[in-house]
TrEMBL record:
Highest taxon of source: Bacteria
PROSITE patterns: VOC
Gene3D superfamilies per record: 2,3-Dihydroxybiphenyl 1,2-Dioxygenase, domain 1 (3.10.180.10)
Pfam family, one: Glyoxalase
Keywords linked to the UniProt accession: Dioxygenase, Oxidoreductase
Listed GO MF terms: dioxygenase activity
Lineage: Bacteria, Pseudomonadati, Pseudomonadota, Alphaproteobacteria, Hyphomicrobiales
InterPro entries: Extradiol_RC_dioxygenase, Glyas_Bleomycin-R_OHBP_Dase, Glyas_Fos-R_dOase_dom, VOC_core
Protein's name in the database: Ring-cleaving dioxygenase
Residues covered by the VOC domain: 3-128, 150-270
């Protein structure tokens, strides 16, 4: 079991973020909670029906946050997978909704539709043969046949790929599968969600600056605590990298480290999942807090903006 677990980014207005990802992109709002390290702000999770690893895009929405700057040492683009024949549908939808997008292009033989979210986050849809046979979540706005099927992968913008590639292959089981110009493709075994990491080498380019529209970190999958521990040991023994102690995020358990190229990596367990504190049928309906914050619920709810105006 390998590949991406989730991607976490920084956004501005939480209501605008909620509307874009649930209505315009048709993702399911899997969890409404707070940033455990800053409980006066939201932490949103979007994904498929159950929030399976490989489908989860999360946000720290901070109203008024300054815009970030794309550059070296960051995630350059986050790509979703859709059925190949759905790219025409999405092009028309973006046009109708005034969503900024670029012309279709080819990467490693795949059709790619780049676009941006309201904060300027670089996204893309990739037409994947066979994705039409995978289940697609629909909230009634985007038909299930055209729905996003989780992540295709991410592109990292790095000064050099060498040391990062060693971590991807040795710790996470990725393999180099191709090169196009300055981009090197790595794939996890199988063709599941989140199995692609592209490294775009741009030596001497400006370093990125985190802010609105930036990716905060990307997380890779570990089946459980034991596999996570084995990965941590390889980081220390083979790469001289020292991850943090494990932190309980309620829906997974995480360790973090800064990979050699500068991107913040996380290793997150697949367990226990998003149904641990509410039924699948009502995921995302209520504000969920970890037990250590329940005593502060009234105070927290008092400072968080309501999402109701976006729902109506």
């Amino acid at each position: 079991m390998s590949g991406l677990h989730h991607v976490t980014a920084i956004a501005g207005d939480p209501i605008r973020n909620f509307g874009f990802y649930t209505r315009d992109l048709g993702l399911r709002f899997v969890k409404k909670t707070v940033n455990f390290d800053d409980p006066g702000t939201y932490h949103f999770y979007y994904g498929d029906e159950t929030g399976r690893p490989g489908t989860i895009l999360t946000f720290f929405p901070w109203a008024g946050v300054p815009a970030g700057r794309r550059g070296v040492g960051e995630t350059h683009q986050t790509a979703f997978r859709v059925p190949q024949r759905s790219l025409g549908y999405w092009t028309q939808r973006f046009t109708e909704k005034g969503i900024a997008y670029e012309a279709l292009e080819k990467r490693f033989g795949e059709s790619v539709l780049p676009f941006t979210d309201p904060d300027g986050m670089a996204l893309a849809l990739v037409g994947v043969p066979g994705a039409e046979s995978e289940p697609g979540w629909s909230n009634g706005d985007v038909p299930a046949e055209h729905a996003i099927r989780g992540f295709h992968g991410v592109t990292l913008l790095l000064d050099s790929a060498v040391k990062t590639a060693a971590v991807l292959t040795d710790v996470f089981g990725f393999k180099e599968t191709g090169r196009e110009g300055s981009v090197i493709r790595f794939k996890a075994p199988g063709d599941a969600e989140g199995s692609v990491v592209d490294i775009y080498e741009a030596k001497g380019f400006l370093r990125g600056h985190q802010g609105g529209g930036s990716v905060h970190h990307i997380a890779f999958r570990a089946a459980d605590d034991a596999e996570q521990g084995q990965m941590a040991q390889r980081l220390v023994s083979n790469h001289g990298l020292h991850p943090t102690e494990q932190r309980d995020r309620n829906y997974f358990r995480s360790i973090y480290f800064r990979e050699p190229g500068g991107v913040l990596f996380e290793i997150a367990t697949d367990i226990p999942g998003f149904a641990v504190d509410e039924p699948v049928a009502t995921l995302g309906r209520d504000l969920k807090l970890p037990s250590f914050l329940e005593a502060q619920r009234k105070q927290i709810e008092g400072v968080l903006p309501s999402l109701e105006e976006s729902v109506s």
